[in-house]
Amino acid sequence: MTTTATERRAVFRKLHESGCFVLPNPWDSGGARLLQHLGFKALASTSSGYAWSTGRPDNHVGVEEVLAHLKMLCEATDLPVNADFEAGFADTPAELGVNVARAVATGVAGLSIEDSTGNPSRPLFDEADAVARIKAARAAIDANGGDTLLVARCEGFLVGRADLGFVIARLTAYADAGADCLYAPGLKTTTEIAAVVTALHPKPVNVLVGGPGSLVRILADLGVRRISVGGALARVAWGSFMTASREIAERGSFDALAQAMPFAELNDLFRK
């Protein structure tokens, strides 16, 4: 079944109204189609996963390539796609608004904007600037139909500002600026997650899971609306690739290839 961008956006918004869903992060068309086949209800892009697939580190892919990548993902699946749009690929709110409008045109159902600068000496935008950027993203979305979900991210925990009060204050300001969903990657404990969910209620909260130890039902019980895995699936794929390659290079062994997905199964899956 082929769906329109409007239909996918309506489905995506409905998912944020109640319950908890997992938003896995593919980095190519095949991964998007496989995840749809497995029954996931929505997907999200991953800036790191895509960058690594092109031989570059995270945050080193330009806006033109990212826009083409988002369009490709949206065309590969009938599921809603949330764009990891980094910091909007812009220094000013006005430039960010232009890029957000272009991202909306790719067909994405949601779009995340983070407050990191990429500058180690000033890792986060000042709050006033960060709020202005969320307002610019909101205005760009509203000017292009208004149905694309806006997700605002505070990167405090990822840049060494592990101050829960600071992060909650930032996310609250972003909600007031027009964000539909809030996201603080780097939250670790159930206490931290519960505090963010409570402080931002009734706005939906996204939690990033990057390793073992969490369960969907536990996060759902805390009130988390959606769960994403960022670049974790890409790291799993690279980990398997490196393990098998090292065994061949260092031991002359092909035993790790026993873990490969069968050729026929992959071909059959992509014929459907």
What does this structure look like?
By secondary structure, this protein is of the alpha/beta class. The chain is 47% helix and 11% strand. The chain has helices spanning 5-15, 29-37, 47-53, 63-76, 93-104, 127-142, 164-176, 190-200, 216-221, 232-251, 263-271, and strands at 21-23, 43-44, 81-84, 110-114, 149-153, 181-183, 205-208, 226-228. An eight-stranded parallel beta sheet has the order 1-8-7-6-5-4-3-2, with helices on both faces.
Structural features:
single chain, 272 residues, alpha/beta, eight-stranded parallel sheet, 8 strands, globular
What is the β-strand count?
A: 8
- Shape label: globular
Q: Report strand order across the widest sheet.
A: 1-8-7-6-5-4-3-2
**Whole-number mean pLDDT:** 97
SSE order, one letter for each helix or strand = HEHEHHEHEHEHEHEHEHH
